[in-house]
Write the structure tokens for this entry.
Amino acid sequence: MRKHRFAYLPDYEGLLRQADLRSTRQMLHKRGPIITRSSSSETLRITVDGDSRRLYLKRLHVTGARRKWRGFLRNTFFGSSRIRSEWLVLLRLHDECLNPVEPIATGEIRTLRFLDHAFLITLELAGSTPLDELLPRELRRWSERDRRRFGKSLSHFVATLHDAGYVDRDLHWRNLLCVLPEDHEQPIRIGKIDSPRGSWPRQRLRRKRGALRDLAALDLHAPRYFRRTERLRFLRDYLGGADPRDLAREVLSVRPVVASREGWRPLRGETEVE
């Protein structure tokens, strides 16, 4: 027997209805441009007719006996499913003003408590572009002042997350949204989507390891776009002005581990920095 679970923020009921995403069945069969895809999940960008806002729909498909059994245990004995946990993480980040991206709906389809499909909908930041699309296209046009402004805005965003005790463990460019204000004196707005591994570890060592993994994920493609001095300046801003060389060595030591787990995913329009 199949059971459908659907939860949403009441303020966005009209938007979900307008986007035909008012039920788990509609979430399952919705079509749109695929932003990211893995062996078990996909993320779609949904355009709403008559509304300038866009949505991100993440779908998780559970196949195979091992994955289904794991989903059964997590829901029955060991807390929420992965998508449900991500929904709670994103809600907390938004409520604590750590992340401007707001999750607005989630859902699950289960058969005899075994998870078949899970869904998460987040609201796109107005005027934002994913970082893995923005930098290959726009970075060459930026002045030195704009490049510094970007580095300072990104370092402030990451430092704010880590200072609050949060580590993401999936802080890759494709999961970061960027809004460039017309006023060049204003900071660049950064938002985070897709946080399946995010948490607030209690142990100091786990927080440090998670923070290093976040910084290493951000640095994975950085050598192809930013000079060494810019990457060091980013770490210095992250540390609040302290010497970044020791932290840089730690990040470089962790980067191969992050790269091996992530797999090499070339960005569109790769650009070399001389």
About this structure: The longest strand covers residues 102-111. The CA atoms of residues 146 and 271 lie 17 Å apart. The chain has two domains: 2-123, 129-262. Confidence is low (pLDDT under 50) at residues 269-274.
